Batch of 2 targets.
Target 1
Amino acid sequence: SSDVCSSDLDTPEQLAVVKRCIVEAVGPQGTAVLKADDPLTASMIEKCKGSVTYICQDGEHKVVVDHRQRGGKAVYVEDGMIMAAEGDMEEPIMPVAGVPLTHGGRIGFQIENTLAAVAAAWALGLPRETIRAGLESFGSDMDKVPGRFNLLDIGGATVIIDYGHNPSSLKSMVAAMESFPHERRIAVYSAAGDRRDIDLVEQGELLGDAFDHVVIYEDHYLRGRQPGEIIRLFRDGVAKGSRCQQVSEITGRDRKSTRLNSSHIPLSRMP
């Protein structure tokens, strides 16, 4: 029933209409898990034929409170504890810091992923003990979820590997790194060519604000762009950033065709 073609998506609102198809497909006996503090997602309840469980890190969010007052279900965090509530009834699941995926409760977007998993498991009727066991045993190890905030210690340096490749995911990554007290940061970053110019420039600016040295690489995922175009747009964004002082480029997908160019952003362009 969506009225937007998947090949013509230019705004988050249009993308939400397409993503909403999943919610529209939920049957009367099914459950949709929706993010309460995202208006585009929260409003999908109007298109759901089944029930809805809202998730939110803030249990006092108005969408959560109103939903519970109508007898609805919600999963949220309260005083460091994951809570599952239905109407006036609520039950603690486990401390969020005890979920390895959240790295001691420091990674906000992984907390949200955890809440979504709890809500889905609850909808499937799994016992609380089973849900807890799953949470306690699931982390972001490379062998379990490669490219999803894998945290490594290499030679005394903290290395984070994540597949985030759009502005919203990069913002979440930068926010997560605030809990790591490192003075110098280096980013190796890329994105596919089928992104809007403004999105690539915005990602560059986010990198320029958060890292001291940015390494931009471009391989075969040009997807309609000319070689070097992705790097140019990233550079345009990085130059607007307030922190980065060095930008490097890597092109090519294998060692034989790789070249590394490095340049320093003049200090006069720093605030």
Target 2
Amino acid sequence: SHGLCVFNGTIAIEIALRSCGIVPGDEVIVPPFTMSATVMAPLIYGGIPVFADIEPETFCLNPTSVEQLITTKTKAIIAVNLFGHPAELSRLKSIAERNNLWLIADNAQGPLSMEGDSLCGTIGDISIFSLNYHKHIHTGEGGMCLTNDDELAQRLQLIRNHGENVIEDKKIGNLNNMVGFNYRMTELSAAVGIAQLSKIHQHVTSRESAMTRLSSELHDLEGLTPPVVREDCRHVYYQWALRFNEELIGVSREVFSKALEAEGFPHFLGYVEPLYLLPVFQNLTFMGDENFPFNLGSYEYKKGLCPVAEDMYENQLILFAPCPYDLTDELVSKLIKCVRRVYENRNELRVRF
């Protein structure tokens, strides 16, 4: 596998798309439920993000939804291993191969996550990782691209480092997207990353163990569904995502959240609003006065486009971010007690609110 370090994880996604030869009018299938950089990257090269819905249990790209969106303009699929759980990468890879598409796996939240016997950074044409400060390991800022394809590896390297200056000497035949930039990570940041990498198994395993315990000791609370781990997968818990059922609990998610906050349980609601509701998509305005690149086809991004993602954001998800914490047994016990205390007093919440 070839590796490439760049300034940050956002740029890693951009370089990955550029190396695949994305040009104006190409469609790239993306999830609506992820960090915004994942879906903005195609626009930078005139590509069109096409949003597929997510699965309700793992919150990753739904392969069935992906298949329904493939057109003659589709060039690539970006799958995100959200919250540290693998997307259905093998299915998505098969879909990509059948339709002659690139598969880019955004593994920024899932180092050491696995599907079957494969690490999630090894499935697909290019995988990207983030080394941002709130990830499992970090360099302050930084990212990586991995690929097993020699040609893609060379293109990634050239685009990262002013490729236009060396393409003649290297006898590069494919000049598409060969204008490069200074996307290099500093040597100091890389040194920090190497030191962090030596501890990655400890970091990931300790968080995985703590969050597995949190899930196990809360699984009996009707109306609260801890993270689901798909069979034969490893979940590394960048986020611990609890699904909330208002009908079964009897109070709103917002009221339950206020009670959790009062007990000292750090969390937030919903993750991100589905990204097609951002102004850039609602107004179809990215570059220039003629709505480029949306003017290269007929596109609209209405509310209701991805109902599962919208439901997770608006109604269901309560998230805890384990990476910033030293998750001792004592701390995990306190987290469990916080949730149980609020749950056991939900009838009082109904009366008060």
